[in-house]
Design a protein that fits this description.
By secondary structure, the protein is α/β, with parallel strands linked by helices. The longest helix is centred in the N-terminal third of the chain and has 27 residues.
Length: about 180
């Protein structure tokens, strides 16, 4: 069916709102470029993942500092990891994040065997982060990261942050950007 005049007006209003939100989100990223630790919170569907993707691409391509950064984009769920990979693992390898995947995928990429079942909270909340923190201390400078972008940060166990900090090239100045 053809849209009525009211339906067309509603669609135009939504398009204008989406454009405005996109501009506001872009402005937010520009304002926060000089920060190396940041948490952005928002409701589901508010565009946090879009911001995380934009920030990852900007940092990896060197548009923020003029120097390409080794960036890892980490999340909790497999579905989100797949979505992030579809958007971030495109284009020139030198201008995209070095790692995109789940916390579990990051552990595997460091050679850590995932032995616990999904129901083993002790493994996931204590053992795995400890093993990863230990492994992070042995990473070479080329294996470490300049920044971590964490989407779904609200789902990260408290001790999951420790190996991320340990895997930064510079623990003081390295970026940790959380989207919750």
């Amino acid at each position: 069916h053809l849209p009525t005049r009211d339906e067309s007006a509603i669609a135009e209003d939504r398009a204008r709102l989406a454009d405005r939100l996109t501009m506001e989100q872009t402005s937010l990223l520009k304002v926060t470029r000089l920060l190396n630790r940041m948490e952005i919170r928002g409701a589901a569907g508010s565009g946090k993942t879009v911001l995380a993707i934009s920030q990852a691409l900007e940092l990896a391509a060197g548009r923020v500092t003029g120097k390409r950064q080794r960036v890892a984009v980490v999340c909790y769920s497999y579905g989100l990891a797949h979505h992030l990979k579809r958007h971030l693992e495109v284009g020139s390898r030198g201008k995209r994040p070095s790692f995109v995947g789940t916390f579990e995928d990051l552990a595997r990429s460091w050679g850590i065997e995932i032995a616990g079942s999904r129901d083993d909270s002790e493994f996931w909340e204590d053992t795995l982060p400890r093993l990863m923190a230990e492994r992070a201390t042995t990473l070479t400078d080329g294996q470490k990261f300049d920044a971590f972008i964490v989407d779904e940060a609200q789902d990260f166990a408290e001790d999951w942050w420790t190996p991320l900090l340990a895997a930064l090239r510079d623990e003081e100045k390295g970026g940790i950007f959380a989207y919750s």
